[in-house]
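Forwarding the complex inputs:
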Amino acid sequence: MKNALHKHGLSIFGICLCCMLLLNAFPLFAQLSYAGPANKSFWYQQRNVKITLHAKNEKLQVVLEKIEKKSGFVFVYSNDEVNASQRVSVNVKEKQLPGVLSEILSPLGISYEIVNDKIILKPVKADDPLKNGNSDAALTLTGITVAPDIQNDTLIQGRVVDNTGMGLANASVQLKGTTYGTTTNNEGFFSFRVPADKATGQLSITIVGFLSQDVSLQPGQPLLVRLSPDQRSLDEVVVVGYGTQRRISVTGAIDNVGNEAIAGRPVANMSQALQGVSPNLIIQQRNFEPGQGVNLNIRGLGTLGDNTPLVVIDGIPGGDLNLINPNDIENITILKDAGSAAIYGSRAANGVILITTKKGKKNQKPVVTYNGIYGIQTPRITYKPVHAWENAYYKNESLVNSGMAPVFTPDQIREFAERGDGNWRVDNIVQNAAQHSHNVTVRGGSATGTYLLSVGYLDQRNNFIGPDYGYKRYNVRLNQSTELGKLKINTILSYVKVKGKDHSSSSGTLIVDASRVPLYYSFTDSAGNYLTNAVSAQFNPKAILEKGGYRQSNDDEVFGNISLEYNLFRDLKLRGVFGGTVRSNHMFGRRLQVNFIPGGVYGDDREVLDNNYKSLFTNLQFIAEYDKQIDDHSIKVLVGAANESFEEQRNQLKKTLTDPDLGIPTTGTIIDQGDSYNSNQRIIETSIHSIFGRAGYSYNDKYFVEFNFRYDGSSKFAKGNRWGFFPSVAAAWMISEESFMDFLREKVSSLKLRGSYGILGNQNVNAYQYQTTFFNYTNAYGFNNQAVGGAGFTLGNPELTWEKAATFNIGADASFLDRRLDISFDYFHKVTSDILYQRRDVPELFGAGFPDYNVAKVKNRGWEIRVSYDWPGKVISQSFSVNLADNLNELVALTYGTTQQVERKEEFELLRRVGQPITVYYGYKRNGYFQNIDDLEKYPRFAGSTVGPGDLKFVDRNKDGVINDQDKFILGNPFPRYTYGFTYTAQAKGFDLVLFIQGVGKRDAMIRGEQVEPFHFGYGGTMYRHQTDYWTPTNPNARYPRLAEAGSAANTNNYRTGSDLYLFDASYARLKNVQIGYTLPASITSKAKIQRLRIYLTGQNLLTLSKLDFIDPEITEFDNNTSFNTGANSARAYFLPVFYGAGIDLTF
Amino acid sequence: MHSHMCTKYRVTHFSLLFCLVLAVSCKKLDLAPADRFTELTFWQSAENVNNALNNIYRSIYTSDRFFYNEAMSDNAFTKLGVNTGADAIASGNFTPSLPRFQQDWAYYYGGIKSCNIFLENIDKNTILPENVKNRMKGEVRFVRAWHHFNLMKWWGDVPLLREDITPDQAKTIGRTPRVQVLQFILDELDEAAAVLPRKEDYAAADNGRITRGACLALKARTLLYEGNRMQDVVTVCEALMDNPGANGNYGLAPSYAALFSDKTVNKNNIEAILSLQFVPSLRTWGDYIDFAPISAGARTNNLSPTQELVDDYIMLNGKAIHESGSGYDEDNPYANRDPRLRATIVYDQYQWINPDGSVQTIYIKPGSSPAGQSANEYTPAGQGTATGYYWRKYWDPEYTAPGFSSGLNIHLIRYAEILLTYAEAKNALGQMTEDVWNKTIRPLRQRAGFNSAGALDYPGAAGDFTAIIRRERRAEFAMEGMRIDDIRRWKLSETVLNGWAHGAKFGDPAIDNGYLRVQLRHFENPTHYLWPVPPSERALNTNLSQNTGYN
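Prediction (whole assembly, two chains):
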């Protein structure tokens, strides 16, 4: 193995790098001193103040006051805990504050913590209560020292909670302008005494990660103080690749999304929940059916292949956002640029989403939380067919316009009007459906370990009528950590079961068959028989849903992760991680035969199908982390090696013509050879070896620089093209720390500039593509009425290698108004080259398809901005948060010299052309209508076409007097631009409100089919309300041309030519979520031993604003690369569910 | 602590660490698929070579091309033509970027590639006997000629590929003049005929393979389509008609209807020269789900026979319907007609025989059906017929679910064609004698079920043989995709593909005498006699010229 490595030059490089870094670091390591703040992450501010101080046998209180004057910090402590009158001596010269503090306080058994401008003093907790005999001893002792004054003191008590009502432990509570104060206990309660004459004024409450707050004392009243999280605290620790960083030292474009962004939202999975919460994290849906995935991408489309970002859950790549329980998530970090993502090298080109699950806390009694939501989903049906009698009238008009005779007599039309409409409409195959979820979490910890156990259940019923269709997910998670001396063991175990049941047909077909039949017809007759009719002659969707069989999925996923962390020396940590995911999916489907009246049959194949899938993913990582602080220099080095291996197997058995009742084999049953396969036909194995590292240096928390690299070898590529090196460099400058910014310090809390550049990789191609292979298959042909096998071939491309994305990012983070206003901006420029794509330079004349080649190139630019503002009021505290982003890609090269590729999608075309966004709509532009006979003479038209008034004119682009292929335009870009999210929250007197709006500022959608074209061939039998704006002599500026039958010259000119007639503006704004909650006062709930009880109403997708009103503007026809292989959007997606419900959050 | 010691200690640790990673991650990066052969090993196995050949057979033709090409002619109309493009081609409302052109171009060149790869690699196999390999090569050369013939038929000049080409060649190769392509096809067919066995020489298990007879038959068709090689046509046809000992024994199957719908006759008859082979429930075609009457279980009707086709079936007395004395009654139009009409087309009041032998009446005329039996009625908005007619020919009473999966063979060349080709060539040479009549038209009509002297007997030298032969071809080969070829080579398209295509007399009597207007067609003469070279191909290969009239 080692030899193999040498061949790649890997081992030499890797080991040398590690050694060099370590050798350099070591002398620093030797100078280490154990003095230091309890939490050294929080001392960036003013920490470089150098202090000279002489004191001999002075009261601690006096010494602290002196330090306060010199440093600008204020000390906060409880007289119950810290004896401020004990005498100390100190003699330091030009020494940094932390050193001074350690020197004074350590011998006294006092620890400190710096929070903003406060230094909180606390007694060092005894590690082992047994050793000291009695854990309360110290308290008792200090209690005695203050005892003499107790009669004259006033008791100040209350509770500090977060905005969800959870008690906050270890918050500092200080009576302003004094040294009186204390910290809160585990449940957030505090109490301390001050001399009665001082019991006025304001309490100042401070805790890391939350905005400080001052509240007025109300004599005799316990206080409830609610703190808002400080999203932007520079001290906050953010999760980055293979570790964490202080926010201040972040040099890349990282977006951190807390779990409050998803709390209380009735979303079935994480990917839906992420929509709109982070700028340029773009989420699109192909339909809204329960259990369906979404298109998720970061910063738009950078490649012609898969643009899905890498998802890393608890450090293990390759997680599934649809399976994780949203309630288990503590934090989501989105790595957008090369600076932050390069450590994931080969897979990072599309960005990385890091998910961290919740954990218990040390020294915490068990906390039990229950979260439940129950509600009803209502399908949002956006189009309406016209009444039966109206439709008959329109049909006649269409026939007459086409030179044919009308088919409905006035009497028949009158009869339709009198009889009313039939019930064959899509509204009758959907219904309201319940969705509910329940989660119970228990968490806590001892002095040396933590635990979290969570159990979740989601039940989302399907809106289709029929027997019990829906989606259920069960999640169990156990997160544990244990410390054994220098060894830390983290274990994560999660189990997910998903059970889905749906009908045996395709949802799109059912929806379209139910919605395009004119209202002359009904689904059933009075005897309950299922009917067919002239438009839907073969199928009855209601029957298929109710009687046509089902598909049942039953999927299991087990995820396990053990991480061993060993503090080899004080600043050097070694970590080994072993994680794996086992997936085992099973699908059973059965089609049942249903006969219709007067004709037609469904499921006469009586198919029975089993499909099994099993996969194993393993990930092994070894990481060494070195972290060193010397005076103003801070160094962080991380190196690691990893392997990821994956294998999957499938098998399937399909039988047809089975027993009609039991679905078991009987006379005539056939095993479908083409659709049945054994495991050896469906095995995929892939593996990646990797070495990666990061080196960061910062000076004085003012200047930061960071290098990342990853070196990956993938089995998807041939030897020689296998290994890819992906480096990045990033730097940041904390301008606000410069002295020349002093004059602005009041206004500008912080200002940081960031920049990064790096190369990222992408290997999202199918395995084995570098080899030309031949495969045998069955039933290729027949001789003498006997089937024979055949052999086909797939060409390979031995030169296949990584895609490379060179990404440049520049950004700024600024905070104003004491960090209440926060603005972040990023601009990026990414050029992806060697994009894996099928060759488009070779004509079909060649006679065979191609594997992927490293041929295309895409440029992608964009920006994102995020503004948030916290407005804590006396009664009502509010927050606003807006994110807005744009990205625009451009195809720079397609394949070799070829500059364009056109793919016809029914009537219109998709185009990939160099210089344009990677996929655009292509076709003719309308130029009004032929209004009269004169017009017919004057305007160009298609050669040989016979048009009349009310037919479309098209722009003659090249002015040659005839409309032909040369007159096509680029009509639009189907990918969203100007995506945004807006969140508003408010809290007052226990009430809270959340509003969340998400939208897309610009998107073009071309929609085909019966929703656009009246009577679409014979498929569509009805017109819809939105189509009645068609041309007539009295409606000369209509949206749609005159009615005409398929096959007529008018219809061919208007509807078969692929013009912007099919183009719609799909921008929208959607009120995604509204929550109104009420948290019961702790004074009431605490009596029932309840820490917190919140009840709330929640609604999802409540309101949509869009010019495109007859189908959902959020729906896209594309998968995650605006692929050419998808069909056109024909408005047959499962409807958007509008959710109304209520929820409970309960914590014991 | 001493720094140097620690450094050493740590280096050891790191070496250990990396070794561990690599040791544990023992999955190699050289991974090969388990269910496939590589280039190195594939051709060694005789089984694989056979499979590669079978794959080439599969690519000869598709059922949808076979049937839907009918809608490009005046025989039929397809309303949902999007997938086949036949509606646009028939109506003349197309641009060169119509996908159908590119699809067919790619289909034939895909077939040619498989042939060329086969021919260039088969000799790597050392197990198969030479004579077997030679036979296989003959089969493949026939298929390669067949694809070139189709390309030449639609486009005229086309790149001629005698060997497998590289991507770079595909980007630069130009169109070979039609005359050279023609010569290549004829030469290849001659050479294949020389090595291929007669149909009788094959083992029973090989029933369906390409024979010497098939080579001659395709050669006859190729020469006939030239229009100016009639003497050569006669020679080739006579080799098939008069020399069964050398080229195989062919004749007419006794029943016209059974040839297409009876499993036994369809698969074993004296008439089939080349058939696309299918096997019930294993290799099937399912187009009938859009052809049959709705009450027979169809989903929709997407290929409807036109009134123009129906009108060309002669009367039992041998006269065309509009000839004087034909006895044709417009109010009872389907009585006393060529029995092949009934075997091919379903008309109003048709007695449809169900798979179980029972009979149902197909009511198509609007408003004519008893209650509950209206599914087949013509309605302009419906899923039923667009013309007032459905199909019966090639209906498989033993179809299997799902849909109409049929294992019936599709006849690409049958002996009836040789007879009519011979008749046409003889007629063109002015040699349509009673002897020729009695060898060609007469037996075909006899087999069809005619028995009147007016239909069977030689009409005398003054007979309008051109019209008779054309009508005979149309009726005999309706629904077999021959009509579009015929009207192109007869230069009839400009006549029959201009104006309305019609359906049955269910419409407003004031419009076209009540015959339903189905599609308004337009044919640009002479441009539309050749298809446009796909613009997408020309964009990638600038040496591909375009046919006149297209840009």
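The longest helix of chain A spans residues 10-30.
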